Design the sequence.
């Protein structure tokens, strides 16, 4: 029997407006949660507009902009990565850099039309470091606290899209959805059935496409990614 994902409950004090709704100016960065900024009503456009003003954690300070998910609300498959990269931060769209181009090719080779997928990240702001001023911005992995803070946005996207299948791209996305005990190497290329944010979901974990770009045997790593995505394609049949 599969172990249930670990969850952490944190009590936050959030200012509310009349009627109990979160106060629109409740920028509680100390609480590390996006919850006050997530609208209860409206579809993906309303979420995207609200996310542009999210101050749920300090990552927004250095990032150029919020990078929300992209795709159709009717998408059958949702792909969840870690966070936007340098190009995504500049353009305001997810998976438009080298890793995104590789992912599109892998999806096509696996029999999934990239135009039919909804793509997003567990964290919506680019976290980076610089060795020196004016030097290239270097990706820095988000902490569990930052990933958890962004969780309400991912939950809202899952609610609006209601995909038939979630493809989990890498360890950070897996921990955001399935708990801190998640290990992508142990479950990649398998179909999991878990309750995520109160909904039964089917998930296929695999590596993040950026891991393929960093691999010594890039061709072998690419074949492994395509093989995992082929399992996702069959699960959608």
Sequence:
């Amino acid at each position: 029997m599969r172990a249930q994902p670990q969850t952490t409950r944190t009590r936050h004090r959030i200012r509310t407006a009349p009627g109990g709704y979160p106060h629109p100016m409740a920028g509680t960065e100390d609480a590390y949660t996006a919850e006050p900024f997530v609208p209860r009503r409206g579809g993906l456009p309303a979420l995207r507009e609200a996310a542009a003003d999210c101050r749920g954690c300090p990552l927004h300070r250095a990032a150029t902009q919020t990078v929300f998910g992209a795709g159709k609300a009717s998408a059958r498959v949702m792909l969840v990565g870690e966070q936007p990269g340098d190009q995504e931060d500049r353009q305001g769209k997810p998976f438009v850099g080298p890793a995104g181009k590789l992912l599109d090719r892998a999806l096509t080779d696996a029999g999934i039309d990239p135009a039919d997928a909804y793509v997003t990240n567990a964290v919506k702001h680019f976290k980076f470091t610089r060795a020196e001023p004016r030097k290239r911005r270097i990706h820095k992995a988000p902490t569990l606290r930052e990933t958890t803070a962004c969780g309400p946005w991912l939950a809202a996207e899952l609610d609006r899209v209601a995909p038939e299948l979630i493809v989990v791209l890498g360890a950070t996305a897996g921990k955001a959805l399935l708990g801190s005990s998640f290990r992508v190497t142990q479950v990649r290329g398998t179909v999991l059935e878990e309750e995520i944010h109160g909904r039964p979901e089917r998930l296929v974990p695999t590596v993040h496409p950026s891991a393929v770009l960093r691999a010594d045997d890039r061709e072998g790593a690419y074949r492994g990614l395509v093989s995992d995505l082929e399992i996702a394609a069959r699960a959608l049949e």
Remarks:
- Confidence is low (pLDDT under 50) at residues 1-28.
- The longest strand covers residues 199-206.
- The radius of gyration is 17 Å.
